[in-house]
Write a structure and sequence with these properties.
This is Lipoprotein. It contains 7 helices and 17 strands. The strands form 3 sheets. Strands 1, 2, 3, 4, 5, 6, 7 and 8 form an 8-stranded antiparallel β-sheet that branches. A 7-stranded antiparallel β-sheet has the order 11-12-13-17-16-15-14. Helix content is 22%, strand content 36%. It folds into 2 domains: 186 residues, no CATH class; 144 residues, Protein Transport Mog1p, Chain A (3-Layer(aba) Sandwich), CATH 3.40.1000.10. It is an alpha+beta fold and 368 residues long.
């Protein structure tokens, strides 16, 4: 297949180019603290290490749906997986006219999907480290497909820190797969060091638990407790403030609370997803979109993040003030083979009033 040779040639070319630039870059960013002292310990000028990363994938248009097969790994891992990637793509079929079916190459496994993706496939590099291949779909307008394709490619580029006008690090070709015209993509950029390892995502600015300073005695007051809302399920232990009332649960939410004050309302949710669930940047950009803000790139994201303490160690905290009177205060906490997302979203004035309680809630939350 022509694409197989194209893929191998491009990977070899990207690998050859990697030696010309430093493998790891560092940024130092200092911003005013947006969280109250006494609730959290905020490291000054956090250092972010970046490493080379390659995203490869296939964008598969099918009628009014577009399917996305995507993975990100080191350039060396991508080169080693080229043959199995070709084998997998050749096995993909749409026999029922809607959802794809495939045959997993030897050594691959499959995890259930969630609200963001149809399935997660797990590959392994030469050292045995797991790599996620995500499968997802979005509605497609055949008349506007070119602009939709460009928008998704731009999003992928942004996740690797590639500028919107930069083309030298991106290769794209279209191949016939049955009756479909499939777009194959290979991109070379960078990501936060360690971000690609399932269950071991090291987000920008994350410090190890051992390096986090211990809380000072009497530094914070215990939050007020509503015993009817105290949640202990397995190893999940949440102690919400008394002012938070039970919210709406669904299949994905482990806990939900709400606060209303007049016409203003905020909702607090706790969910967990498998692996890194698309990565820190993709999830933050999804939150930004929810409050009417444009996506940002990795370099800009590092200046927006702060470390906060939880009962399980550090989490990444971000505050997003939207363009329509809505704000999000959210925390991302990788734990084992899962990533936890704790989010407060709603009216900006009420979100600001509840911020201190939200930070106390984070500090006392224990997640498995």
């Amino acid at each position: 297949m022509r694409y197989h040779w194209f893929f191998l040639c491009m990977v070899m070319g990207l690998l050859a180019g990697c030696g010309e630039a430093p493998g790891i870059r560092q940024y130092e960013v200092t911003r005013p603290e947006f969280v109250e002292r006494g609730n959290v310990d905020v490291p000054q000028a956090p250092q972010v290490e970046l490493e080379p990363a390659t995203t490869w994938g296939a964008i598969w248009p099918r009628g009014n749906q577009a399917w996305f097969f995507k993975a990100t790994a080191s350039p060396e891992a991508v080169a080693g997986l080229a043959t199995k990637w070709k084998e997998f793509v050749a096995s993909v079929k749409f026999s029922d006219g809607s959802n794809p079916e495939w045959t997993l190459p030897e050594g691959w496994s499959q995890l259930p999907g969630n609200q963001f993706r149809f399935a997660t496939l797990v590959m392994k590099d030469a050292a045995g480290a797991p790599i996620e291949l995500t499968v997802s779909s979005l509605p497609r307008s055949p008349e506007q497909w070119d602009s939709q394709l460009d928008a998704n490619l731009s999003r992928w580029k942004g996740q690797l820190g590639i500028g919107p006008m930069e083309s030298s690090s991106v290769s794209q070709t279209t191949e016939k797969q049955g009756d479909d015209e499939v777009v194959f993509v290979l991109m070379q950029g960078s990501r936060a060091k360690g971000q690609g390892m399932m269950g071991g995502m090291s987000a920008p600015g994350t410090a190890s638990t051992a390096n986090m300073p211990a809380a000072e005695s009497g530094q914070t007051k215990p939050p007020a407790v509503n015993e009817m809302q105290k949640m202990v399920e397995g190893e999940i232990k949440l102690t919400p403030p008394a002012e938070w009332k039970p919210g709406k649960l669904n299949a994905f939410r482990k806990a939900a609370y709400e606060v209303t004050r007049g016409d203003e309302r905020v909702e607090i949710t706790v969910i967990d997803l498998a692996g890194e669930s698309g990565g820190l940047l993709e999830n933050i950009n999804r939150w930004r979109d929810q409050v009417g803000m444009p996506a940002i790139e990795l370099a800009a994201l590092t200046s927006e993040l702060k470390n906060v303490k939880t009962a399980n160690g550090p989490a990444q905290l971000i505050e997003i003030e939207g363009s329509k009177g809505q704000s999000i205060l959210g925390a991302v906490l990788p734990r084992g083979d899962r990533t936890w997302f704790v989010k407060l979203q709603g009216s900006t004035p009420l979100a600001q009033q509840e911020k201190a309680r939200f930070l106390e809630f984070l500090e006392t939350s224990a997640l498995p």
